[in-house]
Amino acid sequence: MNEVSHIAAADPTAPVGSGKSRAALLWMILPLVALGLAITWLLVSDPLRNFGNGAPPVENLTFERTILSSDGIRVLVRAGGSEPMTIAQVQVDDAYWQFTQEPAGPLGRGATAWIHLPFPWVLGEAHAINIVTKTGATFEHEIAVAVSTPTRDAGNLASQALLGVLVGLVPVAIGMMFYPVLRGVGRNGMNFLLALTVGLLAFLLVDATAEAFELAAESAAIFQGQAMVVLAAAASFLLLMAAGRRDGVPTGLALATFIALGIGLHNLGEGLAIGAAFAAGAAGLGTFLVLGFMLHNITEGIGISAPMLKKRPPLWTFVGLALLAGGPAVIGLWIGSLAYAPQWSALALAVGAGAILQVIVEVTAYLMRSDGRGPAALTAPATMAGLAAGVSFMYVTAMLVKV
Amino acid sequence: MSEVSAWFREKISRRGLLWGGLAAAGGSAIAGTAAGQSVHSGHGAASAADAAPPPAHLAAHGSMITVGDVDNERNGFDPSRIVTDWETGSVSKLPDGRILRTFEIEAVDKEIEIAPGIMFPAWTYNGRVPGPALRATEGEHLRMVFRNSGSHPHSMHFHGIHAARMDGVPGAGLIDPGEEFVYEFDARPFGCHLYHCHALPLKRHIHKGMYGLFVIDPDPARHPGLADVARSRLLGTPENAEWQEFAMVMNGFDTNFDNGNEVYAVNTVAHAYMKRPIRIVRNRPVRIYLANVVEFDPINSFHLHANFFDYFEQGTTLTPTLRTVDLITQVQAQRGILEFTYKDHETGLYMFHPHQSEFTELGWTGMFDVVEAVA
């Protein structure tokens, strides 16, 4: 401090400026010092002591992953207690079982540990895990249908990638193949297609948001699931709006790219969900379900193509856009099946929802502009028909994939 | 996985500031899951093709047990000791020549370890659960000096014959913290009884740990026809010394307040006699004083492996009320005496447990270690 004032005094050229900045520095330091004092007082005097009534600490435990193998059962748990909590015993189906905890010892707030149980589980049957803590609190987790969890070998990753391509990439590409046909459409046809896009995106928005909230509710309280979903969605919406409008209003290829990105993020979430279903052992994804996903996602390809109808983009653009929109399904499947945790899936879906909202806004704006009539275009019969067609097509095909 | 996440982060982070925000969100999400994965990498050895259920090579009984050991020292009582630890009080003579037996019992709040690592905020008699196994002789005058050092009103309600004033119910010997009461009555009838707190709410006071055995030995002089049998039951006689007697109270603990027990045991500590079997000498007869105080479940039971026993319901008879059985059931507060021997068996470990599998698997199971006579 002395040295600083010495230098300041020795510099005749900037006495006023340094005085100002010193004052500013002081005003910045003062509140920080006050904060420091408050924290010190809190720690030293412990005013919360008076609230201590001998009650045991609040404990919370969330199950994030379950792995069934020939070794038995492994669960990843996350602690959410007011103090570090200790897992004392573990019951499986109302019986105490030997277990090992990794890492051992008390679990701090937010910390995770793997619990390994050498339990001879039965294929296709249900099992209940009940963790008893030091205070006697219990946390139950149900394994609805016990099947071996797939592991991450090359064969599995390849077959999952194939599935991702089938439900993500292929339908988008098929949808894009309508491009030449669509090029000939007039104003009404254009409005219909753009409204169709908005309709399908609106459905995806509702779907992704609901799914995100559902997953958020399953995740540990420490992640504040609902707030996280809302904030992540809002942030991604605003960031994408800002990015999209940096060089003016997006049209043509730029708009198509944003649509593809929004759909891609949604497909990432969809992939996570399918992958998680694998990881949870509920991999009842029959051919019918995959077909449903394909049909469901074909509209996405049409939606992406719609803003580019007035241009004639090179073929590689279509390849790139298809990859952007459909590729994330593969990545989602991998992540979902290998490292599933509800909060990350919720986050991905929330980001996707924000991105979709941005695209809805931009496509709607584009529709009004390209039509030339402004807001009146929104209530035109072709637009309304497109909206209805988009939403109902998605709704009906979603019936095929809901289990 | 790590390649994918690295690629993902690198590709996205190259795009401007605004993209950076997204990358941070997405990247941390993926990094988080990747980290979770690496912890788990040791597990990757299991084959994915192995869809069949695991083989039963994991010895079911070996794995089906609580992990670790209970700190008996901290608890202040050891199941291996209280199984043979009888509280006989102090003895003096009344002016009329009869024996006066005085017990001192104190109610104490105490956190006890009921299974390795599981703490239970118990209410106890003399700091242990079950409370001391009181033992007197038929016809004696008993004086139970009860002090309440706990945080709630408590009492001692004895299953026996006594005056209404001595009943240990509200208005008759139920005392507040800091108070003292003396229960006084004659020891009768002989048998295997119990005592427990009768404060309200009853269910909570009992399941918190306030109960214990109350055994009245028969006076051989009063049972001329069966004096030998009575003498074998009377603590302190040479005939009784031949027997190996055990005090067992079947109990349970609801640790999460859902009106169901998380831990079942005999003498409180889950699996205590599984981890440290009760030693019995092969050619000496065995007598178990057994009571059921389990709360929230209507019935408990006792099943002996590889053997049959005679049963004396309530212990109030000198001839068996059931002969040659290997299983008896008891509702709450029911109790009795079991007599059996392993003298014609080979030595080894013999299991005993209730024949409700659920109770067995939640801690109430034990072993007798039958050995040759120690030289």
UniProtKB/TrEMBL annotation, chain A:
It comes from the Bacteria. The keyword Ribosomal protein does not apply. The chain crosses the membrane at residues 24-44, 157-179, 191-210, 222-241, 248-266, 272-295, 315-340, 346-368, 380-401. This is Metal transporter. Keywords: Membrane, Transmembrane, Transmembrane helix. The keyword Transmembrane applies.
From TrEMBL, chain B:
Residues 38-57 are annotated as: Disordered. The keyword Oxidoreductase applies. Its cofactor is Cu(+); Cu(2+). This is Copper-containing nitrite reductase. Belongs to the multicopper oxidase family. Its EC number is 1.7.2.1. SUPFAM superfamilies: Cupredoxins. Homotrimer. It comes from Mesorhizobium onobrychidis.
